[in-house]
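Kindly review this protein for my students:
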Amino acid sequence: MNRWRIVLLGILAVLLVALPAWGNAAEPPSILLIVPGAPDELVVSVGDGDEYIEAARRDKMLESYFLFYHRETDPVDDLHLRVSGGGHDLRVPVGELTQKYRNVYTLDLDDGTLIEGKDPVRAGIYVAMRVVLTLLIEGLVFLLLGFRTRRSWTIFLIVNLVTQGALNLWINTVAYNDYSLFFGLIFYEFVIIIVEMVAFLGLLEEHGKWRRALYVLLANIMSLLGGGYILTVLPY
């Protein structure tokens, strides 16, 4: 094995062990409530039946997030959600929170049911959408740099399905916190660049190593920029 591969693999091992952590990060929500198809007039509050605190709202394509923080939920023993506006008037019991932060729920406005976590079908659709969009971006770079053989495209698909699939599965675990998502995305893109550099330089045979390395750098820069924009629009 060439010396440069040993060095790159050593760096990768260190990075994978040293998981990212950031001090002074923004407080994560105590409750993240996902409401698909929430009308503009919808207001969600949390309380105990006598006093309610209104949630902060963040709108995404096709769904909205309603955020409550620990300082708002801690004083309440019997948590209930009050959902009103847009033709809806619901009182939904939450029960005891499983943890102090990052309690994720999904509310179905049609039947008023509250489920813990993200809907698996919904999560799978958005993971697949982000992976496909990333493959389109990186595939265009791959094509423009002149990679044409079936072997090259097979390696491209396998490597990117593994790296982008893992990245997007991680994104699916993030409770709404743009700060953590932004820095985590940069960190994992750096790891992906190292992994793909080793894979494409070692496995591809078409064109020289400089062009393969250029592809990895350009494709991941483009996907980071494009993916960052996608995450501002699509839910995660």
